[in-house]
Amino acid sequence: MLLNSETKAIQEQLGNYCRTGEEHPIKGTIPKRLRQYRRLVYNVFDGVLEQAFPITKTLLSTEQWNTLVTHFVREHQPQEHEVWKMPRELYDYIQSVDYSTRLKMPFLEELVYFEWLEIEVHGMPDVVLPKVASKTISLESQLAFNPHHVLHQLSYPVHKSEATTYLDQLGEYFILIYRGLTDYNVHFLELSPFTALLFHLLITRPITIWQALCIICDEHDIERNDALGQQALSFIDLLREKEIVLGVISE
Fold first, then answer.
1. What average pLDDT does this structure show over 28-32?
2. Res 26: pLDDT
3. Domain range 132-249, CATH architecture
4. Where are the domain boundaries for CATH 3.90.930.50 in the chain?
5. By C-alpha distance, which of 178, 179, 172 is closest to 194?
6. Residue 12, pLDDT above cutoff 70
7. Model pLDDT for residues 163-197, shown as the tens digit of each residue
8. Which of 171, 63, 190 is nearest to 107 (CA)?
9. Residues 84 and 90: beta-carbon distance below 8 Å
10. Could you tell me if 69 and 49 are in contact, meaning their C-beta atoms sit under 8 angstroms apart?
11. For residues 208 and 140, what is the distance between their CA atoms, to the nearest angstrom?
């Protein structure tokens, strides 16, 4: 149903007040009650973000967290209609205003995005899984994968370390975030640069394990040998155990 211009204007004024706290006369409202309404709206934002970013909430002081939420609601003006997707907008805000620099926490942006990815993977829509053949996996196999995953690279180990050590551990970290097919929970698996590249090739190209290894060896001047092949198969066994690899793709 379309709103008339007056009702729409009142809605916009009310929304602006809830975001900014700037009081202006709004037709049909009582200022004292409006303040309570704004408090309730703010608590909804705070509750959703606190649940979405528990590590970030623990890392920041109470004052830092409250200031971040207040600035986010006031300056960013969240637009997402689905509540579970709204936390992504906090990451967008932190990135757009360089909040990491403001708080002198260069890892903050990565931490918030990492926590968002957990939500995103958990909320991935169910899809029909690829069919697999009843074959033993070998280097000549082309694999079928659990589609509910994200491979992500970090510069700080925000997935495993205490916040006090982040700054001392700048480097390259490859994290596979995936949703279990049995328990539907989100899990994390840290990969080496080699296994991360192997995984990336296998999920982005219709190739066998051996073909992926050949690409890696050719591009990085690595010797092809049995040990490398065994390392790859051991990695695939681990992925199968964790329900990331489903099996040999059915032709």
1. 57
2. 54
3. Alpha-Beta Complex (3.90)
4. 132-249
5. 172
6. no
7. 667 888 899 999 999 999 999 999 999 999 999 99
8. 171
9. no
10. yes
11. 5
